[in-house]
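Dear H.,

Thanks for agreeing to be a second pair of eyes. The structure we're designing against is below in token form, covering all 121 positions.
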């Protein structure tokens, strides 16, 4: 299933401080998740990151033009480092550079304040 033009989930209720890892990417044409293993790898990464102690959740969105932003939330720098050091994650990064992305950027930030709004049904 493609996530083109979709937004997935809102992470809320996390008491600061915590860390946000912002991954912004531009997919190569044809790397839409239906071939080349992109979709399977994305699912695997979501499963593996959830095993990291201190992982708090993620939010992701991608527009029809291929630009995507995923924000992963972690309790502390140790959790961020554990994810960065995970072998399968490093392999996916290499494959992303070789096959799936025109480019990407990663920003790691410490969140000091957090608030939001969600309409009740």
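And this is the sequence the design step returned. I haven't edited it by hand at all.
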């Amino acid at each position: 299933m493609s996530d083109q033009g979709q937004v997935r989930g809102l992470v809320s209720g996390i008491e600061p401080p915590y860390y946000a890892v912002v991954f912004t990417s531009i997919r190569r044409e044809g790397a839409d998740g239906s071939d080349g293993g992109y979709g399977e790898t994305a699912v695997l990464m979501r499963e593996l990151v959830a095993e990291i102690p201190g992982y708090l959740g993620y939010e992701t969105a991608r527009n029809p033009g291929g630009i995507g932003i995923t924000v992963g939330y972690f309790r502390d720098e140790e959790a961020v480092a554990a994810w960065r050091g995970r072998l399968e994650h490093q392999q996916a990064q290499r494959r992303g550079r070789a096959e799936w992305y025109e480019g990407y950027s990663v920003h790691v930030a410490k969140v000091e304040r957090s608030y939001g709004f969600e309409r009740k049904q």
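Two observations from my side: Helices lie at 38-49, 77-85, 87-100. The two ends are 27 Å apart (CA to CA).

Warmly,
E.
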